[in-house]
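Task: sequence design from structure.
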């Protein structure tokens, strides 16, 4: 398990569009279909990463808490499934069901979407405003497996709350940390 920080895409970057298969219903979905009225959270995750497993319940709660407020969450897995078959689309579907994901769980087979977002690790978070401009690229919170800090989602939640309240989002954002994306 190699600890990898996120690359911190520059704030103000426009969200790259995509058309990816949602493993939950096997339908192709685009960013324009999935964007929220007030904001969109793009999360690069996977099934097997201990850092993602550590925050899964918090991601589900966060998505449920903000869905009615106009923030849509979208999860994408870009891992190489040939070498990491536990992240294959059929297992993604099972994982999404078992964890009660209230958000689409998209499969980035070509890894082009992860590259377009400059995603580096799982989990990696990108919060965009209603115009799909990046306003936050950072950690969920300071919790990591084994560090005894509770998972609260406070950093990401503070950014979402500021976005919803038309307040300035702190530009000093700490990178997310997790397993590296498994590149082909």
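Answer:
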């Amino acid at each position: 398990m190699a600890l990898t920080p996120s690359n911190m895409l520059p704030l103000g970057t426009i969200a790259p569009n995509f058309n990816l298969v949602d493993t939950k219903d096997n339908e192709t979905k685009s960013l324009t279909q999935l964007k929220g009225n007030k904001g969109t959270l793009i999360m690069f995750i996977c099934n097997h990463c201990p850092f993602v497993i550590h925050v899964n319940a918090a991601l589900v709660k966060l998505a449920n808490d903000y869905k009615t407020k106009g923030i849509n969450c979208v999860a994408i897995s870009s891992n190489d499934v040939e070498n990491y078959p536990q992240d294959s689309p059929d297992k993604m579907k099972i994982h999404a069901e078992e964890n009660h994901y209230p958000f689409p769980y998209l499969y980035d087979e070509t890894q082009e979407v992860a590259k377009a977002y400059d995603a580096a690790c799982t989990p990696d978070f990108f919060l965009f405003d209603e115009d799909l401009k990046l306003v936050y690229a950072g950690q969920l919170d300071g919790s990591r497996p084994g560090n005894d800090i509770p998972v609260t989602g406070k950093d990401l939640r503070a950014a979402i709350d500021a976005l919803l309240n038309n307040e300035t989002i702190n530009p000093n954002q700490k990178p997310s940390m997790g397993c590296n994306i498994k590149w082909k």
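Strands lie at 3-5, 19-22, 27-30, 39-44, 71-77, 105-107, 121-122, 124-129, 134-136, 177-180.
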